[in-house]
C-alpha cells in the first residue's frame, strides 16, 4: 500500500501544478505577439497614412502661432491636434512628405506639464520639434527646440516638463524665428487625460 500524503500537501501540489500550466499557456499565447512585433509585417508593404490607427481626417485642426506677447502672429501653422493618449502616442507616425502641405504641422497637447521624449521610429519625414511649458491656458513658453530624423530611434526630449509639443517638417521652423523663451499660442482646450 502506498503512503498517502497529508491532505494539505496534495492541495498545494495541485495548485502549484495549475499555476505552472497557466504560466506555460500564457507564454504560448504571447509567442505570436512577440514574433509578430519583431518582423513588423511585410517589408515590401509601404508605410503611409493607411498604417495609422488615428486617421488624419479624424484629428481636430487648429492654428498654432509662434511669437512674442507683443507680436503673437510671427508665424502660424495649421496643425493637427493630438490630445488623446492614442493620438499623442502615434504622433507624426506614417505621414509622408506629400501629405504635409507647407505651413502644416502637429501639436501634441497634454493635460498639464510633464516630462516627455519622442523618437522618429515610424516617422517618414525629418521634423523640427518645439517643446513648450504652459504659462497659461493655450499659451506655452518654448523651453527646447530639437530635430528628429526619419526613423530615428534615439529619443529627443525636453529639459523640463512641458504641456505643448509642436512638430513641423524640417526647415519650416526657420520662418518663425522660434527660440527658447518665445511664446507658443495653442488655441485648444486642455484634455482631461
Features:
9 strands; 7-stranded mixed beta barrel; 193 residues; alpha+beta; 2 domains; Jelly Rolls; 2 helices
Task: Give a description of the structure.
- The chain has helices spanning 7-39, 85-90, and strands at residues 61-67, 75-82, 104-114, 117-118, 127-136, 139-148, 156-157, 162-169, 183-185.
- The chain is built from two helices and nine strands; from the N terminus they run αββαβββββββ.
- With 193 residues, it is of the alpha+beta class.
- 20% of the residues lie in helices and 32% in strands.
- It has two domains: 7-39; 52-185, Sandwich (Jelly Rolls).
- The chain is elongated.
- Helix 2 (85-90) links the parallel strand 2 and strand 3.
- The strands form two sheets. The protein has a seven-stranded mixed β-barrel.
Major sheet: arrangement of strands = 1-2-3-8-5-6-9
Radius of gyration: 24 Å
Shape: elongated
How much of the sequence lies in strands comes to 25-35%
The third-level CATH topology of the largest domain is Jelly Rolls
User: pLDDT below 50 for ≥5 consecutive residues: which ranges?
Assistant: 24-45
Q: What is the number of helices?
A: 2
Mean pLDDT: 80
Number of domains: 2
Largest sheet: 7 strands, mixed, barrel
CATH class of the largest domain: Mainly Beta
Distance between the termini: 66 Å
